[in-house]
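Hi V.,

You were right to ask for the full record rather than a summary. Here it is.
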Amino acid sequence: MPCPPERPKRIRILDFLLVRSGGQKTRHRDPPAGGTPTQLNRRAVRFKVETRSEWPTLKSQSLTDAKQMLTCQVLITFSKPLLEYSFRHKPFNKIVMKKLGKLLLIICTVTIISCNNQNGYVLTGYLTGFPDSTKIYLQNLSTQETFDSAFIIKNKFVFRGKLQNVPEQIWLNSRVDNQFIYANLLIGNENVTIKGDIKDFPWDVKISGSRIQDDYNYRLNLTKAFIIKRDSLVKSFLKLSPEIQEEKGKEIWDKVKILDDTTHSLIISYVKSHLNTYPGIIDLGYLTNSFTKDTLKAMYERLSPEIKASRFAKIIEITLKDKISEIGDIYHDFEAINKNGQKIKFSELTRKYILLDFTSANCGPCVQSAEELRLIDKTYNDSLTIISFSEDAKKEIWINSLKRDSVSWISLWDGKGTFSETCIKYGVQGIPAFFLIAPNGKIIDKWVGYGKGSLENKLKKFKNI
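Predicted structure:
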């Protein structure tokens, strides 16, 4: 709170209660007209306190409206009896006016700190090994959007903000000497501390201050050793020449499969024993095909009200109500808007073959596929319609990506992000995800990921297209 300008000592405490109205400062000692100077001062205090509901809020670059109003109310509550008493008893006024000012300033500070804790998150990092002024980012894993950044100065950084959907899966990441450095977070609007050295990323950095993150740390540690070993094997394979890859590839991938099976089993066990944790329900959303519908229903009924109300549990709810799309199934119909804001029903577009593409503005492979999709849109225009469905949560991001990628085909958006019912019904767990649908409405192929030329190679398998 900025210090007020110097005033005569008798009214200094009133300056703590200055408000802004239309850009003009108004002091509380300006009373309704009439009366002696002493009466005017008393009326001023009473008048302003009694009409506090009409006050404008104090403005600050770092406070939300809620924090501002709460601070104002606390100041009023504590100051009203003291101010009224001080104007009735002049000796009291002279003795304690200075101390009263300090008291109100302390009250204001405590209130602001309290509001910060309640309304948003503070993410503080103490990191060694990073060059000074290294830029570090926060990326929302649900939307793929990088939503904040900060500089590491003297081994420290601080993020402050407010998450709209809690808890949120966040990627803390940076790049130093062409090395990508990251850590996985699952937090709400909490005070979280990150400590470690650059060598500790991603597995050994210490993250504390969040109960949800503590659950997530425990879950990650269960599979940590197997994932590290898997990554090592994949990297060793990629370093081999094409000839050696052909020779030793099977041996390496057999080892990878064993590690994947072990990891899968550990996660299944974790979900069963930690169902009412956020990491547990998130994992279950990826493992719906690993359980029968009866088992899944029984697990859903065991969820606590908090977890069941979360968007992560929505995946289970929809899976129980609707069949997740598989090859041979009839497509799921849905409604979304196009770039002109018109509502479009998917079933109105299915006169030809459809290549349904689930995508996002900030997905690297999705962006890479745009060039080949433009080529396919021209080459197969008579027999095939491309329809992209955006998982972007914000309309502006989606619209800007259409311009950036020169999208010439139909693109649809419903604003619900990765937790859209459409994404869930089609079983989308990674993007880009493609579904090839025949004119009779049957899904004849589906796949995830993109590599140069992969789309045309898929389409060539179907001679009628």
